[in-house]
Amino acid sequence: MKIRNLVYLIISIIVLALTISLTSSLLLAYFQAGKDWVGAMIGAAGNIIGGIIGGYIAYFVARYQIEESGRNQILNEKKEVASLSLILKEEIKNNSLILASINSSEQVDGHLLKYDLSKEAWNYFSIKAAHKLDEALFISLNTVYRKVQIYQGLTVEELEKEIKLEQINTLKFQFDDCIRKLEIFTKEKL
Prior knowledge:
Elements: H1 3-31, H2 37-105, H3 110-115, H4 120-132, H5 135-153, H6 156-162, H7 165-189
């Protein structure tokens, strides 16, 4: 509910309450003139109407605060997803550049595979990313980072002997695909 509508509602309730209160007070005073309990009735009617108005105001204020809190929570989640996506995207771009340099040299460089491919951002954010990213994107990211982990578990000599340029090219393509998926995901969520 917009604030302007809320203000109109509160003003109309106050006007209605005042109208009812004054009308009932005047009617009671007219019919019961000279009796002691007339003042008590007017006070009781005022208390009841005041309680109703206070209840309405409290309800609308609480509702507004809850809606605003929900909007703030959604905004904070969007900021967190944007930060997460940016950091992961930069790490993936760096890894893709490393793989591109290996491809351009046409020789598997085990030292680059073992020591220069990065997975720190993924290791740090993967727990948070599991419930923030969609399933297909998370699986794609997890797959490429498992390959990086396998490569880093081998020795430089094993990497140079067992890993082929086709595998490097495939991993680079997977990294590039993850970048594309992250960009699409970020645009959809923000």
